[in-house]
Design a protein that fits this description.
mainly alpha, 434 Repressor (Amino-terminal Domain)
């Protein structure tokens, strides 16, 4: 189950764009006219002289060509043979997919499985899976998720009452882990399926805040394909609910802040800079009110995450200088998840690239890779940016990174 991608190993996004354009029998001038880009920009994209690494840049091309973003960005990612952990992570995709497809179907458990249901033990395993998610340990996640999902599906079928609601909350967490695992490997349609499972499981808990937390991911699905109005409607509904609450709990404040960040991202990808900044500032206020980093529903909201997003948002807008300036004030504690820290350094690297500071960009990407090797190597923005750098400066550590990414 995957979107069609006309992918050749080592292709750039620009090469895939050129094939999509030619498949429609459009000239470069026609694509420029349909998207509002200049002819020079279209040529630079296709020739790999200008990176196609930002959704705000890619989505207008997708709308004009009537294609899914993955048809330009490529995927799923195939790690080089030398990357044993990457190969192990990819090998588990099929079992995870099968577990997702079994959601809602009769589990037909054996007597041994029924007797062996232990919610406390399942909670420990779900917590471990979430730790793998935050640590970007993709191979470990792929190894443990199929059995965990199966056991939680059985437990959801055979338990009753409050215990069953607890199981559905754990199942939502496990589906979230599967969703992130699949996204990072480029299996976008499977990740979308996992997001639907998160929503259904959250609704089964009967917890309004847990349901809203699941809708945070649902909004992201629409955001990723450029459906800004749909994403905005989900976000606005959640913010209205959370803002109306009297004496909101810390969990509700944390969730409201997370939705403000999602709103900021939605506006940034729609190239609405002022609206994005307004929502980010509201998230800053929510984080100040909390006064601590929290991980309610695994959304990691708090002052640290808001600071990280303060760098991510200008990167989405192509504002490299703003992002680099804000990055100077970001303090990442060692206790913060390796996945989030690595993603921050990816954003810093992209910001330096926009500023023409390629050595600093490379340093940031290498730092991200040390924290989360597989997640960094499979990150679409890293692969496209490094590929663009290599086409003009193929030497030393840059070339070595390109080999590990599989873009040379």
């Amino acid at each position: 189950m995957a979107y069609f991608t006309d992918t050749h190993e080592g292709d750039s996004n620009g090469q895939r764009l050129a094939r999509l354009r030619m498949r429609r029998r459009w000239t470069q001038q026609r694509l420029a006219t349909e998207t509002g880009y200049s002819l020079a920009a279209i040529k630079a994209f296709e020739q790999g002289r200008r990176a196609l690494d930002r959704p705000a840049t890619i989505l207008p091309l997708c709308r004009a060509l009537d294609c899914h973003p993955t048809e330009i960005t490529g995927g799923p990612v195939i790690p080089p043979q030398a990357d044993l952990d990457g190969q192990a992570a990819v090998a588990a995709v099929a079992p995870v997919r099968r577990a997702l497809l079994r959601h809602g179907r009769p589990t037909r458990p054996s007597d041994e499985e029924v007797v062996g249901v232990d919610v406390d033990e399942l909670r420990v395993r779900a917590t471990a899976a979430n730790s793998d998610r935050h640590a970007a340990r993709l191979a470990q996640a792929g190894e443990t998720l199929p059995a965990l999902l199966r056991d939680l599906q059985v437990a959801a079928e055979v338990t009753e009452g409050p215990e069953r609601r607890d199981v559905y909350s754990l199942l939502a967490t496990a589906y979230e882990c599967a969703m992130q695992y699949l996204y990072k490997l480029g299996h976008v349609s499977d990740a979308t399926l996992a997001t639907e499972r998160v929503l259904w499981s959250a609704e089964a808990t009967g917890d309004p805040l847990r349901v809203l937390a699941a809708r945070w991911y649902d909004a992201g699905e629409f955001l990723n394909i450029g459906e800004h109005d749909e994403a905005g409607a989900i976000i606005d509904e959640a913010l209205t609910d959370l803002t109306r609450r009297r004496a909101p709990s810390s969990e509700a404040v944390s969730l409201r802040g997370a939705f403000e960040l999602k709103a900021a991202l939605n506006h940034a990808r729609a190239s609405e800079k002022d609206a994005a900044e307004q929502h980010w500032q509201r998230a800053v206020k929510a984080a100040d009110l909390l006064g601590e980093d929290r991980d309610d529903w695994h959304l990691q909201f708090g002052p640290t995450n808001v600071a990280i997003w303060g760098v991510s948002l200008p990167v989405e807008l192509g504002q490299g200088r703003v992002a680099v300036d804000r990055a100077k004030d970001v303090k990442l504690p060692d206790s913060y998840s390796r996945e989030r820290r690595s993603h921050h350094y990816i954003d810093v690297g992209r910001a330096h690239f926009y500023n023409g500071q390629r050595d600093l960009a490379l340093d940031a990407f290498l730092r991200a890779e040390r924290l989360a090797p597989q997640a960094t190597r499979m990150h679409g923005g890293v692969r496209e940016t490094v590929g663009t750098m290599i086409r003009t400066q193929k030497r030393g550590q840059l070339a070595e990174l390109g080999i590990r990414l599989g873009v040379v």
